[in-house]
Amino acid sequence: MFSSRFHWDLRPNCIARLVEEKRRRGIPVLDLTESNPTRAGLNYPAEIRRAFEDERILRYDPQPAGALDAREAVARYYAERGMVVGPERILLTASTSEAYAYLFKLLADPGDHVLVPRPSYPLFEFLAAMEAVTVRSYPLVYCGGWAIHWEALEAALTERTRAIILVNPNNPTGSYLKAEELERLVALASERRIALISDEVFADYAFAPEAARVATLAGVRQGLAFALSGLSKIAGLPQMKLGWIVVAGSAENRTSAWERLEWIADTYLSVGTPVQCAAADLLVAGKRVREQILGRTLENLRFVRRAIEGTGATALDVEGGWYLTLQVPGVHSEEEWIVELLDRWNVLAQPGYFFDFDSEAFLVVSLLTQPAIFHEGMGRLLKCIDENTQSQVQ
Length: 394
Hints:
single chain, Aspartate Aminotransferase, domain 1, 2 domains, four-stranded antiparallel sheet, 14 strands, globular
């Protein structure tokens, strides 16, 4: 009766069941996975609400690429970062997830491949399957920092590969693409006529400057590339449902891609009028939200680096974003660690296998978590590790 796209087990996993049972019994759980900024105790400026006091929201004026003034506001966002991006290269979407759907429709036929980094955000398989596209992965390797495994990436390419996806900075590793890597990727993709898709929603959350770091692919002038972002992360406003695609690459490729993307967007016209009218004000007001988020994530990162000294856990290097990866002793599987943390310590973290880490044992925590919860939760997590490590020694 239903599409073969739905090939996953739709039942809740054991971790979700355990969390639900705790909450059903009224047991408070310290959630170290919080990624929703609207539930993270941030102060949202009143200008955000006032941004919707615009009489234009009562008129429907559909434009496939999005309203011009909204696209001009996005162009100013890039100009503030030293990147000249005209509104004629910016196409609005309801989210970055929708942006992926548009791009998979644009680039791939059913059964074609896209390459995604591993470890990385676990949504790609679902997004690709909804478009009848196959996901293949290429590994990121860690040697004090993260880098692309070039031999594995090239080995993963086939005649049916249509795009290489980058998450910059990566989620959850927090690693940025470097200029040397971008140069090599552009050459490889251009030669094989493969598009580059760069998810840059966390790009504004770098923890320290780095000259070799690539902030965006919006300035690529060869082949075909797409830079994705939106209000969800850069302004802490996921509920506003506004993302965008910046089309980059050679002039000829940009023109061909733009014509087809507009056609796709015109078919759906999914971006709401109110958020487009408010976009300019939301981007301005969102700066204050972004500053709070960056301050929060830095504070929590500094806390972890102090607290973890002398314990059995290691914090992997992280350059930016909202997440931190902890390597923990291999005395348990990741699932066993998560279950024990929940069962005995009422703490929720995420296992590395959620993000396709190649080995165990890794736990992922959100640096967006409110400090009081984060400090107490991390304290319990480190005590759990210490108890388990000591018991193994004895």
